[in-house]
């Protein structure tokens, strides 16, 4: 009979040995959870199949949404040691739902990743997810990595390398004052792309709690000015592009292209085996389509991954949240339209 059981950090690490853990599923992530308001580490679980063999592990974070509702978030989890068939995914979720309804009845839903659609899963209440990404294989020489890029990627990097005013440096461990310069570029990017950035403190807390081994910052400058930057998270020999920004000047100078090329080179030298550019557009999730062309400059192949879903534990309460959020979005759109008319 299959089972889902809590485990301590030591057992969790032992079970996952040999299987790279996404950093959000690694024990180190609890340090970050501990300092973010409204979040705390909830626990780690192992899923065993009918034979009793460990088939997956999952780490869960408890979070509070607007209005105070509680949910769990298994970002980039579960981590599977075997093929995540529809039957295995459904069985793990069944056991998880049964357990949570019993031990924590206040929870409204669980957010987790799954390769397969299912009746118990819903599209995210809010937030961004994706089912495709671009992963650069770093188990090759820099020459092989460069040669495997798209022609437009190689051309952009060559142009940027000729510009002697551009430099890329790793600035991991920077202090609050130094990060403010980077954050200004992030705010500019957010205004251009139409999203609301987290406060600077969120990223500073991430850098501080995860430390330089896991959270690394790279910056492209021109004559000392910041044009583009990236925060890269590293765990178990795998790196992922977490967040970054670039200004208008950066696009003309191919500063972001040069930035990611230098990141690739540095990570490869440090023994990191892969660099995930974190998301590409698809028919199901077109929101990232605008970035797909840029990301596939560095790796032509697109990798299928499990998107995030919500699994309601209290269906009526979850349905009420869906209605409330839809009403809020309609009101926001109406206010935006009214302001547009008044400004004409």
Question: Beta fraction of the residues?
Answer: 25-35%
Number of helices, where a helix is a run of at least 4 consecutive DSSP H or I residues: 11
Q: Mean pLDDT, as a whole number?
A: 92
Distance between the termini: 67 Å
Shape field: globular
Low-confidence stretches: none
Radius of gyration: 21 Å
Q: Describe the biggest sheet?
A: 7 strands, mixed
Q: What is the tally of beta strands?
A: 15
Order of helices and strands: EHHEEEEHEEEHHEHHEEEHHEHEEH
Report helical residue fraction: 25-40%
Helix/strand/pairing class, anyone? alpha+beta
Q: What do these coordinates show?
A:
This protein is α+β, with helices and mostly antiparallel strands. Helix content is 39%, strand content 25%. The protein is built from 11 helices and 15 strands. It has helices at 9-16, 29-33, 86-103, 142-147, 151-162, 176-193, 200-210, 248-253, 255-269, 289-295, 315-342; strands at residues 3-6, 39-48, 54-64, 70-73, 79-80, 107-113, 132-133, 135-137, 166-170, 215-222, 225-235, 238-246, 274-276, 303-304, 308-312. Strands 1, 2, 3, 4, 5, 6 and 15 form a 7-stranded mixed beta sheet that branches. Strands 8-13-12-11-10-9 form a 6-stranded mixed beta sheet, with helices on both faces. Strand 10 (215-222) and strand 11 form a beta hairpin. The N and C termini lie far apart (67 Å).
Q: Nutshell version of this structure?
A:
The chain is 39% helix and 25% strand. Strand 10 and strand 11 form a beta hairpin.
């Amino acid at each position: 009979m299959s089972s889902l059981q809590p485990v301590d950090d030591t057992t969790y690490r032992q079970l996952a040995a040999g299987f790279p853990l996404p950093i959000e599923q690694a024990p180190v992530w609890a340090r970050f959870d501990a300092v973010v308001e409204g979040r705390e580490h909830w626990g780690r679980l192992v899923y065993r199949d009918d034979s009793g063999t460990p088939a997956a592990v999952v780490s869960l974070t408890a979070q509070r949404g607007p209005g105070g509702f509680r949910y769990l978030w298994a970002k980039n989890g579960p981590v599977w040691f075997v093929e995540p068939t529809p039957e295995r995914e459904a069985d793990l979720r069944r056991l998880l739902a049964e357990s949570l309804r019993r031990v924590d009845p206040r929870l409204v839903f669980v957010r987790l990743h799954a390769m397969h659609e299912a009746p118990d899963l819903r599209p995210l209440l809010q937030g961004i997810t994706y089912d495709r990404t671009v992963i650069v294989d770093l188990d090759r020489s820099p020459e092989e990595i460069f040669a495997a890029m798209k022609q437009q990627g190689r051309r952009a990097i060559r142009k940027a390398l000729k510009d002697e005013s551009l430099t890329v440096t790793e600035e991991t461990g920077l202090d609050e004052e130094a990060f403010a310069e980077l954050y200004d570029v992030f705010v500019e990017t957010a205004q251009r792309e139409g999203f609301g950035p987290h406060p600077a403190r969120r990223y500073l807390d991430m850098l501080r709690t995860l430390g330089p081994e896991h959270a690394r910052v790279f910056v492209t400058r021109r004559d000392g000015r910041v044009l583009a930057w990236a925060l890269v998270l590293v765990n178990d020999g795998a790196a992922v592009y977490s967040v970054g920004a670039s200004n208008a000047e950066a696009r003309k100078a191919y500063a972001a292209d040069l930035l990611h090329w230098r990141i690739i080179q540095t990570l490869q030298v440090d023994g990191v085996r892969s660099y995930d550019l974190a998301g590409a557009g698809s028919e199901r999730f077109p929101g990232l389509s605008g970035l797909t062309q840029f990301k596939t400059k560095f790796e032509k192949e697109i990798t299928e991954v499990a998107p995030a879903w919500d699994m309601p534990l209290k269906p009526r309460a979850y349905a009420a949240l869906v209605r409330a959020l839809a009403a809020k979005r309609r009101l926001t759109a109406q206010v935006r339209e009214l302001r547009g008319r008044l400004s004409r």
